[in-house]
């Protein structure tokens, strides 16, 4: 069926990421759903997608599917939710989490190779929104990925990003020290990022680039920080 063909098209490639998130899928799932402040942030991010009943939303790097039930609730039984991730074991959890919905599709694929407009047309899909939470910092070219996602939704569509980066609040130093430790520990150990002197600076640069590109390409729907300034939420509507 067309959606399976789309999954083949975006075929997964990043083995380091898959190995790391595959091994830690269970722990990540707990952190992703229960870290204080994160459930509220997820609700804000889903709201910023401005979904209506019957809409189609794609979540890039959906992980264990923490956002998928809330996206399904917003698009209703007539809508379509597609979660894409490179890592098999996290996808299994996402599939279990959404098994009761026949309009939530969890596909293995690469978020940096989204389907092309003619492939979407063939699959009978018109994407209204793209959501990516805690993903762009892992991509080689985050701004380029945001460009692709903006093209995917087209005029009138919404793109929403949420990412952890260094805080700029006045009491930031201790928070940023913890943040730096978390970045090092949560970065796949065989990637270059983990061995750089300041992996959190490189992560910050990637996140800045992605959020800036979204702000440049869209009209602001959300421009917020959460959880002591550590999480940035940017949402925009394409003109
Ligand atoms: C930090 S987790 C975030 C998961 C989920 N978005 C959430 O909010 O809990 C990052 C996820 O991005 C996925 N990922 C990283 N690079 C990817 C890529 N190029 N394409 C698809 N998924 C990717 C990883 O497999 C992992 O599940």
Automatic annotation (TrEMBL):
UniProt GO MF annotations: S-adenosylmethionine-dependent methyltransferase activity
Single Gene Ontology BP annotation: methylation
InterPro entries, per the entry: Methyltransf_11, SAM-dependent_MTases_sf
UniProt cross-references to SUPFAM superfamilies, sorted A to Z: S-adenosyl-L-methionine-dependent methyltransferases
Pfam entry (one): Methyltransf_11
Signal peptide: none
Keywords: Methyltransferase, Transferase
Keyword hit for Transferase: yes
Gene3D superfamilies found in the cross-reference section: Vaccinia Virus protein VP39 (3.40.50.150)
Domain spans labelled Methyltransferase type: 59-161
Statement: the UniProt record of this protein carries the keyword DNA repair: no
Protein name, per record: Methyltransferase type 11
Organism name: Natrarchaeobaculum aegyptiacum
């Amino acid at each position: 069926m067309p959606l399976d063909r789309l999954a083949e098209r975006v075929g997964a490639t990043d083995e380091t990421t898959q190995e790391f998130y595959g091994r830690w899928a269970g722990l990540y799932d707990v952190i992703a759903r229960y870290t204080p402040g994160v459930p509220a942030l997820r609700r804000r991010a889903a709201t910023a997608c401005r979904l209506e009943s019957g809409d189609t939303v794609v979540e890039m790097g959906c992980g264990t599917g923490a956002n998928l039930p809330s996206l399904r609730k917003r698009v209703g039984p007539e809508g379509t939710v597609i979660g894409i991730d490179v890592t098999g074991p996290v996808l299994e959890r996402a599939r279990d989490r959404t098994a009761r919905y026949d309009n939530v599709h969890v596909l293995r694929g690469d978020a940096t190779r989204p389907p092309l407009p003619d492939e979407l047309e063939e699959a009978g899909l018109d994407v209204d929104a793209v959501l990516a939470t805690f993903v762009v910092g892992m991509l080689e070219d985050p701004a380029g990925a945001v460009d692709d996602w903006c093209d995917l939704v087209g005029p009138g569509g919404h793109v929403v990003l949420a990412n952890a980066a260094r805080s700029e609040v006045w009491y930031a130093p201790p928070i940023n020290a913890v943040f730096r430790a978390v970045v090092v520990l949560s970065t796949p150990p065989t990637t270059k990022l983990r061995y750089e002197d300041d992996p959190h600076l490189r992560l910050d640069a990637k996140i800045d680039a992605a959020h800036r590109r979204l702000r440049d390409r869209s009209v602001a729907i959300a421009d917020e920080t959460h959880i002591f300034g550590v999480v940035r939420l940017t949402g925009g509507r394409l003109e």
